[in-house]
Amino acid sequence: MVMITQSAAAELKTIIEAESRSKQTNCGLRVCVAGMDDHGVRYGLELDEIDDDVDVVIDLGEIKMLIDQKIAPSLQNIVIDFMETCDERGFVISNPSLCCRCG
Question: Domains (ranges, CATH) in the chain?
Fold first, then answer.
């Protein structure tokens, strides 16, 4: 199961409301594997249209999360958080089953 923290959900709602594409009923937040580096798997987030043929859609209330069926099993335990510090601001995606934090 994909988990999203309250701070990440609040930030995503703000972004989605600001995007004109968010008014489309078939739009959601796509979670993808963006590659590998020295720290492990790198994940990506983007607003995208739902493709019923290839997407697993997770309804998180006001946010629909989209994951390609091929990679969905490997993303079952991810946690999406939003962090804001003096130096950085952004989403952090971690996968406890991989024992590393990636963003």
Answer: 3-102 (2.60.300.12)
